[in-house]
Write a structure and sequence with these properties.
alpha+beta; Arc Repressor Mutant, subunit A; Aminopeptidase; 2 domains; seven-stranded mixed sheet; 10 strands; about 40% helix
């Protein structure tokens, strides 16, 4: 598979398995529930409920009920290719539910709008769908409806993020990646003024040979590639001086990776690995210079500590944080 969040430089950062190993495992229950939901809502049927519309045609009417659209715009909204959108419009034209005309802003494409019959059909569709969902929601308590809305909103957001990550590869760090990774860390550190003389991890003596550090037991580092170019990464390693606590370390992202939700995805992958390794908590150190990173860590459940733990050697990072696993 391939944020508007700035680079998340964690002043805290193996190569034990193949490139795509250790990614979040697919939940068979969630897959089954998703398939069942699609079937229960009739999305595999040739008709949308009792109306003479396919699901795609019904969704086309719903979007056109908001405003007139070009076929390309319809395709984007419905997440289908232009040819399928054009085919749906053609069928609706034959049913006299929509009409097309030259786009006044661009005569090379058609503008699609509802006919009076289309508005009438849309009203019937809305009534049918309202009745269907009223029957469904009547089975749920108000608190369950609120929980369902929040869960579906989260699921939809995850789907959008996953699509934006098409072409991105996450894999374990290898020795051949050391030079590129060190260059990324130095570039992002310089961008944010995290210079070696100030006590940040860019000054670590292991920076040019990180694959060695993360080949140690209880450690792992993942890199992110886009178009075969190494553009970021993050890792987990034991926290020196603290038994059973790991550290989220060296999370850096070049501009080409920002805005794709990858910082959260990679942080979750690191935390999943930490749990598998039996760590009881995950620690990190960061700085006020990275407000977007602080927001990410807070959203993951990290809380600020009154004083640092362990012996990281990163004296310039004034914000220690901890997450119980």
């Amino acid at each position: 598979m391939s944020l508007n969040i700035k680079p998340h430089v964690t002043e805290t950062g193996n190569q034990q398995e193949s490139p795509q190993d250790d990614l979040t495992q697919v939940s068979p229950v969630l897959r089954q529930l998703s398939r069942h939901l699609v079937r229960q809502l009739g999305m595999l049927s040739g008709a949308c409920g009792q109306l003479p519309l396919t699901p795609v045609q019904a969704h086309t009417l719903l979007e056109l009920g908001q405003k007139d659209l070009s076929i390309k715009e319809l395709g984007n909204l419905l997440n289908i290719d232009k040819s399928n959108a054009s085919r749906a419009v053609s069928h609706l034209v034959k049913k006299q539910l929509v009409q097309t005309k030259a786009n006044p802003r661009d005569n090379r494409c058609l503008q699609v709008s509802l006919t009076p019959a289309g508005h009438k059909m849309l009203k019937q569709l809305d009534t049918q769908q309202d009745n269907q969902f009223a029957d469904i929601l009547a089975q749920l308590a108000p608190s369950e409806v609120t929980q369902l809305e929040a869960s579906l909103r989260c699921y939809n957001k995850a789907i959008t993020k996953a699509k934006s990550q098409q072409g991105v590869v996450i894999r374990a760090l290898q020795a051949a990646d050391d030079a590129e990774l060190a260059a990324v860390i130095r570039a992002v550190s310089a961008e944010y003024g995290l210079t070696p003389d100030k006590g940040y991890s860019v000054a670590d003596p292991t920076l040019d040979h990180l694959s060695r550090q993360y080949s140690q037991p209880g450690s792992q580092y993942w890199i992110i590639e886009k178009q075969q170019q190494l553009l970021g990464g993050a890792g987990i390693a034991p926290l020196p001086g603290e038994e059973g606590i790991c550290e989220l370390q060296k999370m850096y992202f070049m501009p080409a990776l920002r805005g794709l939700g990858l910082s959260r995805r990679l942080a979750l992958q690191c935390l999943s690995f930490a749990r598998e390794q039996g760590y009881k908590a995950c620690y990190l150190e960061t700085t006020q210079l990275l407000p977007q990173a602080l927001g990410l860590y807070a959203s993951l459940g990290f809380t600020t500590l009154p004083k640092p733990l362990g012996n990281t050697g990163h004296s310039a990072c004034e914000i220690p944080m901890l997450l119980t696993l």
